[in-house]
Amino acid sequence: MQEILKTVTQAFGVSGNEEDIREIITTEIKKYVDEIKVDAMGNLIAVKKGKKKKILFAAHMDEIGVIATFIDDKGFIRFSNLGGVSAFNSLAQRVRFKNGTMGCINVEEKLESMKDLRLGKMYIDIGCTSKEEAEKYVKVGDTASFTGDFHVQGDFAISKAMDDRSGCAVLIELIKTMPKTDNEIYFVFTTQEELGLRGAKTASFGIMPDCAIAIDVTRTGDTPECNSMEVKLGKGPAIKVKDSSYIAHPQIRRTLQDLAQENGIPYTLELLERGGSDPGAMQTSGTGIPCGGISIPCRYVHTPCEMVSIQDLNNCVKLAGLFMKHYK
Amino acid sequence: MILIKELTELNGVSGNENEVREYIKSKINGLCDSIEVDTIGNIIAYKKGSSGRLKVMLSAHMDEVGFMVSGYMEKGFLKFKTVGGIDSRILPGKRVVIGKKRLKGVIGAKPLHQQSPEERERIAKIKDLYIDIGAETKEEAEKLAPLGEFVAFDSDYVELGNDCIKAKALDDRVGCAVLMEVLKYKFEFDLYACFTVQEEVGLRGAQVAAFKIMPDVALVLEGTTCADVPEVKPFDFSTELGNGAALTLVDRTCYSDRKLVQFLYDTAVKNGIKVQFKQTTTGGNDAGQIQRTGNGVKTASISVPCRYIHSPVSVMSRSDFECVERLTLAALNEMNKDKDFTKNVAAV
Questions:
Q1: Domain-by-domain residue ranges, chain B?
Q2: Residues B245/B268, Cβ–Cβ less than 8 Å
Q3: Within chain A, which residue ranges are assigned CATH 2.40.30.40?
Q4: CA distance to partner chain B, nearest, from residue A207 (Å)
Q5: Contact status of B249 with chain A (Cβ, < 8 Å)
Q6: Where Zn(2+) 1 is bound, by residue (chain A) (predicted)?
Q7: Strand residues in chain B grouped as ranges (E)
Q8: Which CATH class is domain A2-63+160-326?
Q9: Residue B348: pLDDT over 70
Q10: Which residue of B has its CA nearest to A286?
């Protein structure tokens, strides 16, 4: 798990620019599945054939990042966010463009108060002295991701893009270790989730499964003075009850809870106040899809130091495996 | 530019696009294999191609921002609501027309010398404004301007300087004009030119049009924001008037298909057509819905920069419009002759 988690979290794949991460995942999984394809939105769809129920498992490949919108005469780059990028978390961070160019994010010095900090007053410095020079490295429309090394300490792993590469890692492990089942399983690595659950919409329409489960990260309620939340790092997968984009289908939620209890997998229930996930788009796709979620507890979501527990990830793999085997 | 003059002088506030629809239908009649108006009111003009290799959808919305009569005040002043995104600060003193009969009215507000110091500081909100149609009683007003009647800006088409046009509803009659021009040509692929409704209130028409067509590729023709005006820094310009056709990289509703954007950019360069990237990521258009239809559609937008968009005095450059028209045709011709387009750009 550690190895694959490192590979996928460190790969480049800002929303709408998922080519690299898609390639990596394809290489990892292709010999374990019967069919593999990419749709118009760039979703990677892998199928393990079966005769009974069609079950879709989704994890999004994209990560939040920034896009260059303007390069000034001195070579400073103005940018906009792709997904939920906080100005405060971005200040003084490093970003890496797809071609490897590194940049530092900083803010116009005239800023009177930190309360006025906005991305519109910030810029990326790539160490160039003119527009012409800067354009050799970065063009308008190029995207960059925040940097954040992968590091493991005890059971906890820290990296950029745990949201939702840790979900991708869970799906990859699931594919490699999946139990025998008569159900037909669709593993979908979706695109543009951070821009509004966009890839999931078209992928689920194309598949029209009998049910869908998203593996995505969720916030936790275990840090100093945080909002109260049942979910805690290291206390097992969080079974989705609701987030701001959907309410989990009660039958799916119950099945997941029963399976966890019967098999001694620790879990918590997730009621996420703010934030959505792919089922928000999938559940109303076509004629409608019953959806649920197995969530990965993650501290500091949408920062370069997102933190998850390896043990939780392993338990997510277990629970998802049980679900695909027992779902009727 | 006669086409833009005629198109912008029609009224088609979202949900009330009939005047525009009838005009466009009459002009494209005979150019297409079929012209259909769907249940929500979109025109879907279809031209069958000789190869059937590819389904291409072009989309431009017929509707424009405006208002709706929402109630009556003493002495027959009308209360109103906005339809689509309008900055209330620009409204006091503007001329409007109400309903099909184009009943004239003006938007009024409490006179400055009657306002309290706080009121003067405060930005005028819609609820502080009213429409004056010269009625004498509430009853008279109700008869002349029934509840729910649409209200459009009253603004002529005027040519400014050597290259500019001022009009209302350039967003998106410019797109409609491009589609009407394109329909004069024949292609190998199947072409669906969609004149959509209710874009300004949430990209509604395009959603069902795209679902019906299920195209391989879609191009959205638009009027877009342009803020190259005093007090704005260059990185916030969005687009610049006179710098040619604007390509959207990403906005609030759509991350344009990157290969398709590159294809459009290369096509512009190859044909010597001025082209610019829209350099802000705000706003949104039909592309957002079209892209996410069915199994997904490769989608991009080509726009004409419009200063003071969503106001009765939008200003655009004629040469930019020509760039958009030329680029659209050049791109379609390129798709037509290049068999590799399907493989390299449109393939999933």
A1: 2-64+168-346, 67-153
A2: yes
A3: 66-146
A4: 9
A5: yes
A6: 60, 163, 216
A7: 34-37, 43-47, 55-61, 66-72, 78-83, 95-98, 103-108, 130-132, 150-153, 158-160, 164-167, 190-196, 217-225, 245-247, 275-277, 298-306, 314-317
A8: alpha beta
A9: no
A10: B294
Q: Which of A55, A23, A57 is nearest to A42 (CA)?
A: A23
Q: The CATH number of B2-64+168-346 is which of 3.20.20.70, 3.30.70.360, 3.30.365.10, 3.40.630.10? A: 3.40.630.10
**Is B310 within any annotated ligand binding site?**
yes
Element (H, E) at B71: strand B66-72
Q: What is the pLDDT of residues B230-243, one digit of tens each?
A: 999 999 999 999 99
Q: In terms of C-beta density within 10 A (0-12 exposed, 13-18 middle, 19 or more buried), how is residue A217 classed?
A: buried
Contact between B291 and A198 using a beta-carbon 8 Å cutoff:
yes
Residues of B annotated catalytic, as ranges: 199
What is the model's pTM? 0.94
**Cβ-Cβ contacts under 8 Å, A141 against chain B:** 249, 258, 261, 277
The CATH H-level (homologous superfamily) assignment of domain A66-146 is Peptidase M42, domain 2 (2.40.30.40)
Question: Which fold would CATH assign to domain B67-153?
Answer: Elongation Factor Tu (Ef-tu); domain 3 (2.40.30)
Residue A70, both tokens: 């303007």
Give the closest residue to B42 by CA, choosing from B243, B232, B210, B223: B210
Residue B95 touches chain A, beta carbons under 8 Å: no
C-alpha to C-alpha distance for A69 and A141, rounded to whole angstroms: 6
Is any Cβ of chain B less than 8 angstroms from the Cβ of A198? Answer: yes
Instruction: State pLDDT tens for residues A198-237.
Output: 999 999 999 999 999 999 999 999 999 999 999 999 999 9
Torsion angles phi and psi, residue B214, rounded to 5? 50, 60
Contacts of B291 in chain A (CB under 8 A): 41, 198
- Residue A133: predicted pLDDT: 98
Q: Does B296 touch chain A (CB under 8 A)?
A: yes
Residue ranges matching CATH 3.40.630.10 in chain A? 2-63+160-326
**In this complex, do A202 and B255 lie within 8 Å of one another by their Cβ atoms?**
no
ipTM of the prediction: 0.91
Residues 114-173 of A with CB under 8 A from B: 120, 140-141
Nearest to A13 by CA among A57, A54, A60: A60
What is the per-residue pLDDT across A158-187, written as a single tens digit (0 to 9) for each?
Answer: 999 999 999 999 999 999 999 999 999 999
**Six-digit token pair at A284?**
């109303």
Q: How far apart are CA B150 and CA B173, in angstroms?
A: 18
Query: Residue B293: closest CA among chain A residues belongs to which residue?
Result: A202
The answer to the question of whether A23 is labelled as a binding residue is no
